[in-house]
Amino acid sequence: MFQTIVDPDREIDKTSLQELVADCLAKLTPRQEEAVRLYYFEDMSYREVAEVMGFNPSRAHSIIANAIGRLKRPWISRSLKPFWEDI
């Protein structure tokens, strides 16, 4: 799901990136965090996320889209906007 973006002028170490992701995920509601983790980290489809969480695929899509919108703000404010432009 995620594209690897390599920019030699912008290097971020793995620990910093993990901390940033954890910090961003902590800003989500529990439902949003679970849906994002299932979709992006467990590589599930919207249908699979919906099945696991007990609602329909369009609701899964909506929850994930809202979560991504919420996650963009901290990333953009930390000057990482180029990472989001390709998603």
What is the strand and helix layout of this fold?
Blueprint: H1 14-26, H2 30-41, H3 46-53, H4 57-77, H5 81-85
Describe it.
By secondary structure, this protein is mainly alpha-helical. It is built from 5 helices and no strands. The chain has one domain: Orthogonal Bundle (Arc Repressor Mutant, subunit A), CATH 1.10.10. Helix 2 packs across helix 3. The protein is elongated and about 40 Å long. The mean pLDDT is 80.
CATH superfamily: Winged helix-like DNA-binding domain superfamily/Winged helix DNA-binding domain
Please state roughly what percent of the residues sit in beta strands, choosing from under 5%, 5-15%, 15-25%, 25-35%, 35-45% or over 45%.
under 5%
| Helical fraction | 55-70%
How many beta-strand elements? 0
CATH top level assignment = Mainly Alpha
CATH topology: the name is: Arc Repressor Mutant, subunit A
Instruction: Extract low-pLDDT stretches.
Output: none
